[in-house]
Design brief:
By secondary structure, the chain is mainly alpha-helical. It has one domain: MetI-like fold (Orthogonal Bundle). Helix content is 68%, strand content 3%. The chain has 14 helices and four strands. It has helices at residues 2-6, 19-51, 68-75, 78-109, 116-128, 131-141, 148-155, 170-180, 183-194, 198-206, 211-238, 243-249, 260-270, 274-298, and strands at 54-55, 63-64, 304-305, 308-309. Strands 1-2 form a two-stranded antiparallel ribbon. A two-stranded antiparallel ribbon has the order 3-4. Strand 3 (304-305) and strand 4 (308-309) form a beta hairpin. The chain is globular. It starts with a helix and ends with a strand.
């Protein structure tokens, strides 16, 4: 008995006869995704990393120049700094205004009223409209001469605004349009609000908290993981802003809407400076990664999970 306890009999585990077939089928199912990542994501990223170190204008062979593209970006390219500044200012305005508006709409869409499904469908409609169509629509709405927005302003006695033709208002006009297309953010907030336990509101009412106090003491802390998610994805999306600026203003007036991606697009496809554009792409990638990391590092200070701060 002692020998059997110390030296147990070997256990013969026979592999399922269908093991290799199931394994092969599993790999075949994930193969399209893996190939897509390698061919369309990681492959182009590695290629752009190489091209960023070259002078490449498509029509000829790339000439290796080291870090000259990056040096020129940070020392001699005035448009680089200006386009990055425009993008940063847009991102901050969009994040502040967009998150507040989306949360307020989400609060309205979680009220118990008749026809709530119709209202939710109405607020979701902007997201199913193609981005190009939305840009053309808002270019018409913002038109100074015959746009409906200025018509309404003049009807109530306010002066018409040159929304897209003035450097003071053009960037803010882009923010307004982006907030209008923020239906996904609103839906995520609606989902988050529906997960807040009613018991917490009841307990706050018993303690004498009014509506405003319940909002800041219960709703915001419990919704902080959702806010965190929307802030991260919103910042990443803001730094990829391109289509409306390309269609509505082409970077004007006076470069006030000359976004970073618009600058990159012109460098690559207008001036055929692919090596320089690749360097710009990697710079904005690093900027996005750094800001995302900063948001993650700040999350323990304000993100709560089940009433506890994030560890």
């Amino acid at each position: 008995m002692t020998d059997l306890a110390i030296h147990p009999a070997p256990h013969n585990r026979k592999r399922n006869p269908l093991f290799w077939r199931n394994t092969l089928e599993g790999y075949l199912f994930i193969l399209p995704v893996v190939l897509g990542l390698v061919i369309w994501t990681f492959g182009p990223m590695l290629a752009s990393a190489y091209y960023s170190l070259t002078d490449y204008k498509i029509v000829g062979e790339p000439q290796f120049i080291g870090f000259d593209n990056y040096v020129e970006l940070f020392t001699r390219d005035r448009l680089f700094a200006q386009s990055l500044s425009v993008t940063l200012r847009y991102a901050v305005m969009y994040m502040v205004i967009g998150q507040i508006v989306s949360l307020l709409i989400a609060l309205l869409l979680t009220q118990r009223v008749r026809g709530l499904g119709i209202f939710r469908t109405f607020f979701y409609l902007p997201i199913i409209v193609p981005y190009v169509a939305s840009a053309l629509l808002w270019r018409y709405l913002f038109n100074k001469e015959y746009g409906p927005i200025n018509a309404v302003l003049q009807t109530i006695g306010l002066p018409a605004i040159n929304w897209l033709g003035s450097p003071e208002s053009a960037l803010f006009s882009m923010v307004i349009m982006s907030v209008w297309t923020g239906a996904v953010t609103t839906i995520i907030y609606v989902a988050g609000l529906q997960q807040v336990p009613e018991e917490l509101y009841d307990a706050a009412k018993i303690d004498g908290a009014n509506g405003q106090q319940r909002f800041f003491a219960v709703t915001i802390p419990m919704l902080s993981p959702t806010i965190f998610f929307n802030v991260v994805t919103g910042f990443i999306g803001a730094f990829q802003f391109f289509v409306p600026a390309f269609i509505m203003t082409e970077g004007g007036p006076v470069k006030s809407t000359y976004f970073y991606n618009l600058n990159l697009y012109e460098k690559a496809f207008k001036w055929l400076e692919m090596g320089y554009a690749s360097a710009m792409a990697w710079v904005i990638f690093v900027v996005i990664m750094a800001l995302t990391l900063l948001i993650f590092r700040s999350s323990p200070l304000w993100v709560y999970y089940d009433g506890e701060t994030q560890s």
